[in-house]
Amino acid sequence: MLALSAVIGLGGGTLYFLGDGRWTVVEAFYFAVICASTVGFGEIDGLASVPFGRAVAVSIILSSLGVVAYFQSALTTFLVQDVIGNRLRTRRMQKMIDSLEDHVIVAGAGSLGSYVIAELVATHTPFVVVDKSRSHVEAISRELKHKVPFVLGDATLDVVLQSAKIEKAAGVIAALTEDRDNLFVTISARGFNSKARIVSKVVSPDAAQKLLRAGANAVVSPTKIGGLRIASEMLRPTTVGFLDRMLQAKGKALRFDEVSVPEGSWLAGKELRDVPLRRAHGVSVVALYKGDEMTVNPPPDARIEAGMVLVVVGEVERVRELRRVAELSDQPADSVRSS
Q1: Most confident residue range from 62-66, 179-183, 293-297
Q2: I need a labelling partner for 112 at 20 to 30 A (CA). Which of 37, 298, 300, 315 fits?
Q3: Beta partners for 201?
């Protein structure tokens, strides 16, 4: 519109100057509008007798056509790339989300949710983000250099959680700003999926028990965690620095993780020294969990039992491989302890 107005303004001013009082300002600009719009009302009186008068009229017509053509081109580009393109990308993304199973749904991609997403990307965990802002999620995607699958909408609405395939999800992380919104997400998610693990952010201490009663498996207070982190930075800076470097290391991600020992696993009944986890799988066992009992830094003769959880440290891919191996009933050849 600015370009078209400039053409009309320049053309009308030129005609008025060339007319030398033959036309009023209104008449000169009116004829410029007629030329720019190409409606064909005919020439203004006396135009043929004014030197370069018709040349100016032709210039106005051609310039306005160029401006309109550019506008149409820009509009077409906007419609194809932004509107139609976004719809096609959304459709492809929804098709990909529909194929997911045992994924994690992250409700909220704010300052807290962005760190959650970064960790899920680093550990190669399948996930879907639910957020109201497309630009916000796309900014996170560019920052992580990873395509972030997302559903655009309000995570407190049932239909939005269903679009994220809540029925097939392994877990839900409620990371919205307000406790009441996280409560709605928790209630809805538990209603759709009774087996999913639900972890919720909590702001007010009073809301923690409500979230747990609503179906959350665990609640996390960023304020409490932040306070503990500040104290740890003061009391044990080297240890905190080690954990930071482990979490932020480029390339192969090193994590503390857990491996469950199911019934019938070849690991059940064996002592730690008979299972070369460090040599064959590149992980070290730092603790054993059985129910409420915990053994930290277990001795070599500690016996692994079915239903036990091994807390290990190792590369993400190696831990993932160990989980697969732990589900086998027969001991793999590469896990046999050499004499």
Answers
A1: 179-183
A2: 315
A3: 220
Instruction: List residues bridging with 129 in a β-sheet.
Output: 106, 150
Angle of CA points 101, 106, 112, to nearest 5°: 155
- CA distances in angstroms from 41 to 30, 44, 108, 182, listed in the order given: 11, 9, 59, 65
Strand 127-131 and strand 293-296: the pairing is unpaired
Spatial distance between the Cα atoms of 107 and 143, rounded to a whole number of angstroms: 19
Which residue ranges form the domains of the chain, and what is each CATH number? 2-90 (1.10.287), 100-226 (3.40.50.720), 249-335 (3.30.70.1450)
DSSP state, residue 302: P
Residue 9 confidence (pLDDT): 73
Taking the whole predicted model, whether its pTM rises above 0.85 is answered as no
Contact between 290 and 307 (Cβ < 8 Å) = yes
DSSP notation for 208-273: HHHHHHHT-SEEE-HHHHHHHHHHHHHH-HHHHHHHHHHHH-SSS-EEEEEEE--TT-TTTT-BGG
Question: How far is Cα 125 from Cα 105, in angstroms, rounded to an integer?
Answer: 11
With beta carbons less than 8 A apart as the criterion, state whether 255 and 286 touch.
no
Q: At 148, list the tokens.
A: 């972030």
Q: Can you point out the beta strands (E) in 165-238?
A: 171-174, 197-201, 218-220
**CA 171 to mean position of chain CA atoms:** 16
Residue 169 CA to its chain's centroid (Å): 17
User: What is d(CA 255, CA 38) in angstroms, rounded to the nearest whole number?
Assistant: 70
Q: 121-159 pLDDT, tens per residue?
A: 988 899 999 999 988 899 999 999 888 999 999 999 999
- Run of H or E including 55: helix 53-77
Residue 174 is classified by DSSP as: E
Identify the CA nearest to 128 among candidates 153, 149, 144: 149
